[in-house]
User: What shape does this take?
Amino acid sequence: MNSLAFTQRFAAGLAALKGVSWPEARRRYDTLCQQFAPPDPVGLSVSDERVANVAVRRFSPQEATSEAVLYVHGGGFTLGSVRSHHGIAASLADQLRHEVISVDYRLAPEATYAEMLSDCQAVANAISPIAFTGDSAGGRLVMDLAKRLNAKVPLGLIYPPVEGLSEDTLGPDAPLLSRADVLSLCPFYLYPEAQPTRRPPSLAQEVLAVEHDPLTAPLEAAVAEWHKAGAEVGYRCASSMVHGALHAHALLPDMQNAWQDFCQALAVRLTR
Assistant: This one.
């Protein structure tokens, strides 16, 4: 599969979400994302549980260490689940050789951003993860969670919306995610207790971006600011890829290469 074929299939799936109820849109989104996920790695154990009264999916590789990594899925704060992002979390667990706990946090518009963040915090407090990871909206939640907890653990951030997004800071429109799409999501996470700041969410981070994404330009600017503030930030950008392509990482060579580099770099940080 190439990037164009993925974009066309994913765009058609997103178009099918319009005009239906939130429960139906979420069911269709889960099905759409699952179409691109590879089979689970050999020896991976998967179970659905509740941790601190929050639904989670636990991914346990063979001979994994007892220390867990927290994973928070994307989906624009309104979509996504442990099912839609199963393939990503399974691959993360396999490559890190650590247990991964994927959080099925509440979603907007039924839940506020503060409630989403509260779900992630409850799980983090219960499992004491050695790293926080998240993609897209999940990356934003991970950044705010790390700041709230003053966490000293590494972060793995995959094309997250950073602070200060505006018409002036966003990159150009791209397939699957336009500038208008991004700006429409800002109200979901601009909650009253948020404190606008360029302070690094962690002093140790690995960041993955994609070439065609309006979020990449502000993310690269944030990475530069984090470097200036003393953070160690590893950064890579998947050539020719679009927002959401991580779902098809096993089918898209450029995405797979960037994803493996990201996971390997994060794995090294976990050994320090």
Q: What stands out?
A: The mean pLDDT is 94.
